[in-house]
Design goal:
There is one protein chain. With 471 residues, the protein is mainly beta. Residues 9-23 and 47-52 have low confidence and may be disordered. Strands 1, 2, 3, 4, 5 and 6 form a six-stranded mixed β-sheet that branches. A four-stranded antiparallel β-sheet has the order 9-8-7-30, with no helix packed on it. It has a four-stranded antiparallel β-sheet with strand order 10-11-12-13, with no helix packed on it. Helix content is 12%, strand content 36%. A hairpin with a 5-residue loop joins strand 14 and strand 15 (297-304).
């Protein structure tokens, strides 16, 4: 959401707010979601000999790659807390999640388990090469699942080059039954990184704003979900409007903007305890919170006497430090991955443009000079790109290099805004508002502007924020 939208909402809220509508800050919170733990990686044969070094035989386009993903094998078919139908059925579910991950990013066209024969347990480490070759498979992803004595699940994942009769990668993980989908995402990450040479992004989570109700009276709730839309959970009840969420770098907290007391305030929600705290005690409206890459600082904007500037405060509280002091609206600060610079939006030139400054507020300079306006900048995790909302008239998503060059428009929507990066910096998510209806949805697109797709959510959705890869 752009700063002008937030200020408009702020004005509307001031009119609507009445003493009877002031809630205690925790009254807007739902039940605390469970906290996912760190996934244990199991040692696999070959780890002691320096790892696998096999080359990939495929040299064409990845979307032409024939990638077969049969059901994961079960050493014995037993019911678990993850699937009462047994580990054989769970093995098929694991393969379906992996297939969907690799298919939905637009880089691959995999064949899933429902169209393939099921390998047995010994065949997982000894593939039937001729059978897969005759079926046209060039790469093969197969694995196993078995319950452990403590109730946890052990999931192994193998990537084979069928043309070379060679194993390219393998890994295994131990997960609680409730976290079985994470093992599938870890396997998809393994395949993606081995075949593309890029960092993965499937085992990650997204925070966003869930929207319901008519266009002129929308209820906006804080929600979280896995990167593929599964494990959806609402965090707030919707009694107060919530906006612009951001995960902390360690996934333990969520920072977001709430109108819980009738004014825009920044809160930090502790996912483990379900409690939240106010970032600053200022009576002035505060906007657009962002974490520093190391989680030590919180960057935010505050309106004082009609002027909005960017401030930073320690994540543990304390006095705030003002970083900008130009007349106008300075907002939307986003740290560079190394934490040394901040990109932000300002209308000090008379129209919204993108500016850069050092992390201490020094060396402020404008970096966008093309026609139209620019807002909501977000620095790529790789550091090589800045995504932003490009506004020549309609709202679109665009990228540029940190020096303001290499402009590229990625979408052509009527109202696309608020981009957020995948952990590997190759995919962008944003939200799109439909003309006339005001309905919103989350979309994602890759850096080429291709592979545009809508992310499934149970209700309308806006303000997505993609977190880093889970530990």
């Amino acid at each position: 959401m752009t700063i002008r939208s937030m200020l408009s909402l702020f004005a509307a809220t001031l009119i609507a707010a009445a003493p009877a509508a002031v809630f205690a800050q925790n009254e807007d919170l739902g039940s605390a979601p469970p906290v996912g733990g760190e996934v244990e990686t199991i040692p696999t044969p070959g780890d002691d000999d320096g790892g696998l070094t096999g080359s990939v035989s495929f040299e064409g386009s990845l979307d032409d790659l024939q990638l077969a993903i049969p059901a994961f094998a079960a050493e014995r078919d037993v019911a678990t807390a993850a699937n009462a139908q047994g580990t054989a059925a769970l093995g098929a579910e694991l393969a379906r999640v992996i297939t969907a991950d690799l298919q939905n990013n637009g880089l691959f066209a995999p064949t899933g388990p429902d169209a393939l024969p099921k390998p047995n347990y010994p065949q997982i480490t000894d593939p039937v090469w001729n059978m897969w070759r005759m079926r046209g498979a060039e790469m093969l992803v197969q694995g196993y699942v078995r319950p452990r004595a403590d109730g946890k699940l052990v999931v192994g994942c193998y990537l084979y080059d069928v043309a070379l009769n060679d194993e390219l990668a393998r890994s295994g993980w131990v997960v609680p039954p409730s976290d079985w989908r994470r093992a599938a995402h870890k396997c998809a990450d393994l395949v993606y990184s081995r075949l593309t040479g890029e960092s993965p992004f499937f085992d990650s989570r997204i925070a966003y704003i869930a929207e319901t109700g008519p266009k002129d009276n929308r209820t906006k709730r804080l929600a979280i979900m896995d990167s593929d839309g599964a494990n959806h959970r609402f965090i707030t009840t919707g009694r107060a409007t919530a906006l612009t969420p951001r995960y902390s770098p360690d996934y333990r907290k969520l920072m977001y903007l709430s109108y819980v007391d009738g004014n825009p305030r920044i809160y930090v929600y502790d996912i483990g305890t379900g409690k939240q705290t106010l970032v600053t005690e200022s009576a002035n409206p505060t906007f657009a919170p962002r974490w520093s890459p190391d989680g030590r600082w919180v960057l935010y904007s505050m309106a004082v006497n009609g002027n909005t500037d960017i401030y930073r405060v320690s994540a543990n509280g304390g006095p705030s430090e003002r970083l900008t002091d130009a007349p106008g609206i300075d907002v939307g600060g986003s740290y560079s991955p190394d934490g040394t610079r901040i990109v932000f939006e300002s209308d000090r030139s008379g129209a919204q443009q993108i500016y850069m400054m050092n992390a201490d507020g020094s060396n402020q300079r404008r970096i966008t000079f093309f026609g139209g306006r620019a807002a909501t900048p977000e620095w790529s995790p790789r550091g090589d790109q800045i995504a932003f909302t490009y506004i020549p008239g309609d709202f679109n998503i665009a990228t540029m290099s940190p020096d303001g060059k290499n402009f590229r428009k990625l979408t052509d929507g009527w109202q696309d805004e608020a981009p957020t990066w995948a952990p590997n910096g190759r995919i962008l998510q944003f939200f799109r508002t439909e003309r006339n209806t005001g309905r919103t949805a989350i979309y994602q697109v890759d850096l080429t502007g291709e592979n545009l797709r809508r992310l499934p959510t149970p209700v309308d959705a806006s303000d997505p924020a993609w977190g880093p890869i889970l530990p």
